[in-house]
């Protein structure tokens, strides 16, 4: 067995001092003290917090987004995730128009199987709604996919309101969750045209073409559709605005209970002044072209307050990485041509722990980045809880470690990070995936123990 001794354990019953024993791919025992026997390997983790492995419920690895392939493969992306303390990702497989969901799932397995350091599960995104897809929802459920995604934006992906309603109604008997990208695509298309025609061509045009109203209207519409569907189970992904938050509050006030809310570090840390950054080559602002974009300081403040008040369920990353040079720079003179997405799967735990130091304790960090993602996406308690019998996905966190985020030292396969120079307080010291040590002090061990997680 592998014994993690003398740590502060973050358990469902609260913080406790003690030891954790990993036997193969399971947590075998949790106790105040576990006496080692011959052959046991002991790691003294005194001074550290021992978490169930963190879960990132929103990533896009090795994915064609309509403009380009993402820079991170499942191999590089899950390796980076593990280095930061994330032991499971839930990635968005996508059934493009003309592609069946089983075929899409097969393709994502071909991309991921045998290459991953962290575990991986799949949501299934639908780009069209038809009778075949309706029938295949049950097939997906049998294959371990219990969460799905639709879009209100992007012409090649979005469904209309009637189709979205039908998806919700079809998921209800399966107990499925619908994740929705909430931006009004018709308005975005028109505002992009207007902003460009006004002579604003650089990255600063991106947030102007996707104002808060586009998100809030789409969130409100989604939640009215969910109400019409009998309080359907929905997950609002990457919430970025106070107006959107107000729409969620309104839906909860009218009695809807099956609403889950996700936000991302970029909306808790950044604001829209980042688009004015130039850098040495004048391209720095391109790093922040992601959808939705970083918002106004008032939005950031509102989301932080909501997070501390318990109104936000999960923090994910929407990791969708593109290089500035050779990818994002093709839109240097036309923000509409910049591949949308940002990198963050490696740095999420440190960004959140540092930003909310003194406000969110270890139990809060566990709830937002491990327990709640496991609950929302059908993995709890085998993941998301430090309990005997659970999977041996464990992050030993050193809260006293200090380090600085830099593109030069990160493991994300991308030439920049939106958080360059951010000074972190706390780091993943030891990261175990299925009982194997996958990373130590931010560096990979070379092990690739990641497995598919059927949910």
Automatic annotation (TrEMBL):
Keywords of the record: Hydrolase, Metal-binding
Cofactor(s) of this protein: Zn(2+)
InterPro entries named in the record: Amidohydro-rel (IPR006680), Hydantoinase/dihydroPyrase (IPR011778), Metal-dep_hydrolase_composite (IPR011059), Metal_Hydrolase (IPR032466), Metallo-dep_Hydrolases_sf (IPR050378)
Pfam family, one: Amidohydro_1
Gene Ontology MF: a single term: dihydropyrimidinase activity
Enzyme Commission no: 3.5.2.2
Top class in the EC scheme: hydrolase
Highest taxon of source: Bacteria
Keyword Metal-binding appears in the UniProt entry: yes
Record has Hydrolase as a keyword: yes
The Amidohydrolase-related domain, residue ranges: 49-437
Family as reported in the entry's similarity comment: Belongs to the metallo-dependent hydrolases superfamily. Hydantoinase/dihydropyrimidinase family.
UniProt xrefs under PANTHER family: COLLAPSIN RESPONSE MEDIATOR PROTEIN, HYDRANTOINASE/DIHYDROPYRIMIDINASE FAMILY MEMBER
Annotated protein name in UniProt: Dihydropyrimidinase
């Amino acid at each position: 067995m592998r014994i993690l001794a003398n740590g502060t354990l973050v358990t469902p019953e609260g913080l406790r001092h003690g030891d954790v024993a990993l036997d193969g791919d399971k947590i075998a025992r949790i106790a105040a003290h576990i006496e080692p026997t011959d052959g046991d390997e002991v790691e003294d983790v005194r001074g550290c917090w021992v978490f169930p492995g963190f879960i990132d419920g929103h990533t896009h690895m090795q994915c064609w987004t309509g403009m380009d392939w993402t820079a991170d493969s499942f191999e590089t992306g899950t390796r980076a995730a593990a280095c930061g303390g994330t032991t499971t990702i839930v990635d968005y497989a996508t059934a493009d128009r003309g592609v069946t969901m089983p075929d899409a799932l097969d393709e994502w397995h071909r991309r991921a199987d045998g290459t991953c350091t962290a575990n991986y599960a799949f949501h299934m995104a639908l780009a069209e709604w038809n009778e075949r897809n309706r029938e295949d929802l049950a097939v997906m459920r049998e294959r371990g996919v219990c969460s799905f995604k639709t879009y209100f934006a992007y012409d090649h992906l979005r469904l209309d309101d009637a189709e979205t309603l039908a998806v919700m109604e079809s998921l209800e008997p399966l107990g499925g969750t619908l994740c929705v990208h909430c931006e009004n695509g018709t308005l975005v298309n028109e505002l992009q045209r207007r902003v460009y025609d006004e002579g604003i061509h650089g990255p600063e045009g991106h947030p102007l073409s996707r104002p808060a109203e586009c998100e809030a209207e789409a969130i409100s519409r989604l939640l009215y559709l969910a109400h019409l569907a009998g309080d359907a189970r929905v997950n609002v992904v990457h919430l970025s605005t106070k107006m959107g938050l107000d729409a969620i509050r309104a839906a909860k006030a009218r009695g809807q209970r099956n609403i889950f809310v996700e936000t991302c570090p970029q909306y808790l840390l950044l604001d829209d002044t980042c688009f004015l950054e130039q850098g040495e080559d004048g391209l720095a602002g391109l790093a922040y072209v992601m959808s939705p974009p970083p918002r106004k300081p008032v939005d950031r403040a509102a989301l932080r307050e909501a997070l501390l008040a318990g109104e936000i369920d999960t923090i994910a990353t929407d990791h969708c990485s593109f290089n500035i040079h050779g990818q994002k720079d093709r839109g240097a003179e036309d923000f509409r041509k910049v591949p949308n997405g940002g990198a963050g799967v490696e740095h999420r735990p440190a960004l959140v722990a540092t930003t909310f130091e003194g406000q969110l304790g270890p139990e809060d960090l566990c709830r937002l980045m491990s327990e709640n993602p496991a609950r929302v996406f059908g993995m709890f308690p085998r993941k998301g809880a430090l309990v005997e019998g659970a999977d041996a996905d464990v992050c030993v966190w050193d809260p006293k470690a200090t380090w600085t985020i830099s593109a030069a030292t990160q493991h994300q396969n991308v030439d920049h990070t939106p958080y360059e120079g951010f000074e972190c307080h706390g780091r993943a010291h030891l990261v175990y995936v299925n009982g194997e040590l996958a990373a130590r002090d931010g560096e990979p061990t070379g092990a690739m123990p990641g497995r598919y997680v059927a949910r």
